[in-house]
Amino acid sequence: MPTGALHAGEARARPDGGHHFQGLIATSIRLQGLIFFDVLTGIYNRAYYELQIEREIAIANRRDQTLALLLVDVDDFRSFNSRYGYDGGDQVLATVADVLRTTLRTTDTLARYGGEEFTAILSPHLLIEEARVIAERLRAAVADEPFPIAGSTRKLVTEHVTVSIGGVLYPSGGRTHRELWNAANRLLLEAKARGKNQVRFVGTRPDGAIRPVPPAASPRAGAASRPLRPRVEARPRP
Q1: Is-contact 150 84, C-beta < 8 A?
Q2: Contact 164/188 with Cβ under 8 angstroms?
Q3: Which of 48, 52, 105, 194 gives 20 to 30 Å between its CA and that of 112?
């Protein structure tokens, strides 16, 4: 067979092969959305978080920088499921996720870890007080947000939702993902035990010892209410 004929045949085959390859890429992107995004809230899921935290720790270690890990848990979440059913609970989770996402910086990573628990990775390099301020900003944003939920009569009822947050800084609060998680989780449980709707953080004294940073004061009573946030659609991102 002439060489030129072989090349022509290859050329005729390439368009089909190219379309097939493009189709595989599109399918891969769609599958990645299913693998790494939470269907209910549209934010990252636990699988993505566990990959990302390892990446962020490696980057922070290589650059001799810090990062912060926050564990955010919706207070008394079971009560919403009990009163409004699972649909009402889903509305709460979707709105909490939207509030957290719009309050965080663009460089931070938010994920739904499971159930009513969320994780936030604050990076790149930041000081302990900066991380605590961001955590308190998240707590206050949720507490100030009106949560319209459809009750049993399908009439909208505005509920008050709060979150408790445990936070820790890398590397002072832990050098591995597991160490950071355990430290943040202990502080989250402490926030729950101390009355909920608060932030508990681990910081460092000048001598390098780890100490708890007290939670910031709650927003002033009588603050202006925020407008209702539209219902967040539960859909995966592309």
Answers
A1: yes
A2: yes
A3: 194
Q: Are 124 and 105 in contact (CB under 8 A)?
A: no
Q: Residue 30 falls within a domain, yes or no?
A: no
User: Any idea what the Cα angle at residue 26 is, between residues 23 and 28, rounded to 5°?
Assistant: 110
pLDDT-wise least confident of 51-60, 163-172, 190-199, 206-215? 206-215
> Are 113 and 46 within 8 A, CB to CB?
yes
In a domain, 192, yes or no: yes
Spatial distance between the Cα atoms of 209 and 195, rounded to a whole number of angstroms: 26
- CA-wise closest residue to 135 among 64, 77, 55, 212: 212
Domain residues for the domain of 130 are 37-213
Concatenated DSSP letters of 186-212: HHHHHHHHTTSS-EEEEEE-TTS-EEE
Lookup result for tokens 């936070």: 167
User: Nearest 5°: phi and psi at 153?
Assistant: -90, 5
CB 98 within 8 A of CB 229: yes
- DSSP secondary structure letter of residue 176: S
CA distance 217 to 103: 19
CATH number for position 135:
3.30.70.270
Q: How far apart are CA 218 and CA 56, in angstroms?
A: 31
Question: How much is the pTM?
Answer: 0.75
Q: Report CA-CA distances (Å) from 136 to 47, 219, 220.
A: 26, 10, 14
Number of domains present in the structure of the chain: 1
